[in-house]
Amino acid sequence: MLRFVLFLLFCYYTETCGSDEAKGDKVVTVDCSTLRLGQYICPDPSIDQIDTETQQYKGCTKGKTVPSEGEADVQCIAADGIICTETNNSTFTRKMPCKWTNGYSLEIALLLSVFLGMFGLDRFYLGYPGIGLAKLCTLGFMFLGQLLDIILIAAQVVGPSDGSAFVIPYYGAGVTVIRSDNETYLLPQADWNNIT
Predict the structure, then answer these.
(1) Dihedral sign, Cα of residue 177, residue 179, residue 185, residue 191
(2) Is the pTM of this model over 0.90?
(3) Cα–Cα distance measured from residue 119 to residue 136, given in angstroms and rounded to the nearest whole number
(4) Which helix (H) or strand (E) covers residue 93, if one does?
(5) pLDDT at 191 exceeding the cut of 50
(6) The dihedral sign for the CA sequence 132, 133, 137, 141
(7) Model pLDDT for residues 44-81, shown as the tens digit of each residue
(8) Cα–Cα dist 48/105, whole Å
(9) What is the rounded average pLDDT for all residues in the chain?
(10) CA-based angle 52:89:44, to the nearest 5?
């Protein structure tokens, strides 16, 4: 709250945020894409923006590099006294991260793996027909493949073949996978030169 008051005072005295008429009403007009945390509420609590089937934001789109890491345009509301230049009111849209789902349920995949995994139905359900057929012909790789798939699906290491995230219960455990690629590396440390 103190930051917001200081922001309004700064805008009032420097005359950089909005017109003179707005300053008389203690209202500031700004580009809402530049608002800082605490100057807006996102998502707007007065609007239901969560899809009840997937427990993600409505309109979540597939990510460009990693399909499950998508984004959705979410309606936000600026703090009292802030008017957005984009909409001429206190509401604006902002891209928020979400997990793109395609309807594959974690519960169904896990139940199929536990009870019918020796026949490969869990892999057929997730979109891996080759591994499903191999499990069907070998009785789940002599039940070792079934046990391994139970662990991998429960840990959400094996997911749907299209790269989407699982639909999990509302209070279910969502797992975030940390990936390493050519852009990620270890920074050299000062004590690395002392290693012999």
Answers:
(1) positive
(2) no
(3) 4
(4) strand 91-99
(5) yes
(6) negative
(7) 999 999 888 888 899 999 988 788 889 999 999 999 89
(8) 23
(9) 84
(10) 20
